Amino acid sequence: xxxxxxxxxxxxxxxxxxxxxxxxxxxxxxxxxxxxxxxxxxxxxxxxxxxxxxxxxxxxxxxxxxxxxxxxxxxxxxxxxxxxxxxxxxxxxxxxxxxxxxxxxxxxxxxxxxxxxxxxxxx
Length: 123
Fold this sequence. Notes:
By secondary structure, the protein is mostly helical. It contains four helices and no strands. Helix 1 packs antiparallel against helix 2 and helix 2 packs antiparallel against helix 3.
């Protein structure tokens, strides 16, 4: 299995791409703030999952990187809230993205609680 086969990575990547496409229509004055932040955090969720998976033989490092992924996923939720509150996304998009992000968080949480199921040595 590769990190790209992990459900958390796949769902995280899909959300990051949804955010990328939708954020193209955000106002240009948001280019270096909201657009940059929401794209970075959503992409960083996936990057940290990938990095952690490569270090899975070291349980503490694996869990630490997954914790970073979870943190970035939560940051993405904050930027989703700002995107909605500023009127850049509809309520239905916000609901969809929130649902996706919560699911990603649960998947990451499962991985953190069960590192041995992902090839990590016992702690």
